[in-house]
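User: My collaborator sent over this chain with a note saying "see what the structure looks like." That's all I know about it. Can you take a look?
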Amino acid sequence: MNRILRTIVILLAVLAAAALILVYGFRIRTVAVEGNERYPAEEISSDLMSTSLLQNTLYFAWRYRSAVPSPDAPYLTSVRAKILSPTSVKISVTESTLIGRVQYDGQNVYFDEDGIVQMITDEVRPGIPLVTGVSLQKPTLYQKLSMDNASTLRTMLSVTQLLIQADFIPDSVTFDESGNMTLRFGSVAVRLGQDEYLEEKIANLVQIYPQISSESGTLNMEGFTGKNSSITFRRSSDATDESETEGDMSEILAGAGAGSGDAEEDSGEAAAEESPDDGSQPEAAAEGAGDQSGQNAAEGGEAADDGSQPDGEAGDSGDQEEDQQSVGSGVMAFDSSGTLHYDARIVNGQVVDASGNPIDGCTVDENGNIKDAFWNVIDPVTGQNVQ
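Assistant: Without extra context I'll predict from the sequence alone. Here is the result:
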């Protein structure tokens, strides 16, 4: 009996000692935080260890054994902990990404990709686009932005996230009453229009903007679809004057997405505009063109009488035109590096760009469709996804 009692007492003593070791021996005293930029390490560690249980090294490491969000720190998208010693841990955190800001009562309200308010401050942080023209209700920290128009909120999140991803930050993004968007880059206004083809518009804007960055005027992308479309830029004499006149307009092809028809039209317009000061050349050129055309026709007839084959040559030319037309004027496809090409086409059984360079990662399937590096199957004529 005494032996059993002694055994029980020893067991209880061991358990008590183990409990004391777990409670006091594994208590977090030192925290190393990595991955933070906006928030100080002291604030992060204090929020994450808000209860006595979370101050235990073993429980804390178990709680954040994998990268998970924390309800105690809603400004972090993930937290992961690792034990360095019985009294110290290392915390790896990922802060939420700020994709835009709006202003309310003179303060800057910063939001993430989900529209959650992450900061309300007087501070203006660089690299975050300002959104204006939206009707905003009183914001609450770590709550979703509340707007009168839900579709405007979705569009705002889409366009600001695309701009952040492209590292192409405007001075402002403005919405009008109809939901049309206008980006402002210094003295250049870019009209994006409605929430349609936003990815294509931003991708082409990044390519085009260096050509007009030193100009003053308006770039109109409202009707741009990313395929066989041209973009107009209207220059203004005054950086503050956004008035548009026909005399100030010049056309810029939308990256590599414009079709051959647009190029021919531009070429024709350029030829029509070139004339000497005395104005006599266009008429002479027209007469020369007529004479040359008649001469070619006559020579063609003579060649036919001599037994040569101008008709055969014309037929070959027609075949070549038919072959060229069959590959389309350029469709959108991703290469192996993730770059979106707007001029993909099939030439001689190979997917190439407008310059004839092969597009890495793109192939032609058994049905004659283009298969890009992301396994999209695209009709080379219509540009539509087959599957």
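A starting point for your reply to your collaborator: The two ends are 81 Å apart (CA to CA).
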